[in-house]
Amino acid sequence: MESFFVALNAVLPMFIMLFIGFLVRKLKILQDSFLPQLNKIVFNVFFPFLMFNNIYGSDFSSVFSPKLLAFAVIGVFTIYFLSIGFTLLVEKSNYSRGAMIQAIYRSNFVLMGLPIAANIFGKDKLGMTAVLVAVIVPIYNMLAVITLEIFRGQKINVLKILKGIARNPLIIGSALGLLSVAFNISLPETIDKTVSDIAAVATPLALIVLGASVTFDSIKGCSRNLVICIIARLVVVPALCLGTAALIGIRGVDFVSLIGLFASPCAVSSFTMAQQMDSDFKLAGAAVVFTSVLACFTMFLWIFFFRQAGFF
């Protein structure tokens, strides 16, 4: 029963916020036309504060784990190349291939991973999880741009990719947080409280916006590929990566961070990138919506299973 309630308490708050967002839209409290602007505010304003706040003040001498970092990076690249090979076998259209690859390898680590770790271990234990975000998000972005450019037949612009990574709000917030730790910078109390208050808004607001974005008419014409993406993202990838992490001895908050990384639904930004780069944005959007809803149940099961097995 303890494992059940640990898993429930980790996932239920996210499910409730998604449902609130869904109701807000259904009740016409929030108009569809305002969702893109609100989503942009969340990712460009609130999330940089969240990333900074999670790293600021952390004692990395006690939480930094080279083993965890190496495993996460190797895991992401491994899943990426496996997803390319698999997609080339099951899908003939380049238009859909890029969107499928993104849906399989690229998780919503920031939006789902951080709350999972915080709900289980507390916000003061998120230092290494935040470092993972600072490393994984640029990798996700780089691989997404390369993939979508290749499958629409364009040449890769390395400088453009590097500029995009450097300007990413999540990377900027993480970098400032790491600098504050490296140089032992302490913010004045008023500024510190302001940063904390803004950071506290980020995750609930982002989940509510995501819930408000849920529509069920995006499945038309892509049901086969959508089912493949859902199973790969929520079942196959977690089974491979978390099973391997368990075998090599990763435990505790580090293991929960990997649940957030490899068992989370598709990244919200994958839809935007697919839309901007001539990929199958309908498939990308449907993958984001359905994996986000279903992940509330699959992540509960993964957390319950590994908690019951004593991995954290």
Automatic annotation (TrEMBL):
A Pfam family it matches: Mem_trans
Record has Secreted as a keyword: no
Coiled coil: none
Gene3D superfamilies: 1.20.1530.20
InterPro entries: Mem_transp_PIN-like (IPR004776), Na+/solute_symporter_sf (IPR038770)
Keywords: Cell membrane, Membrane, Transmembrane, Transmembrane helix, Transport
Main location: membrane
GO CC annotation terms, alphabetical: plasma membrane
An individual GO BP term: transmembrane transport
Keyword Transport found: yes
TM stretches of this protein: 6-25, 37-56, 68-91, 103-122, 128-148, 169-186, 198-219, 226-249, 286-306
Entry's localization field: Cell membrane
Membrane topology: Multi-pass membrane protein
Family: Belongs to the auxin efflux carrier (TC 2.A.69) family.
The protein's name: Auxin efflux carrier
Organism: Ruminococcus bromii
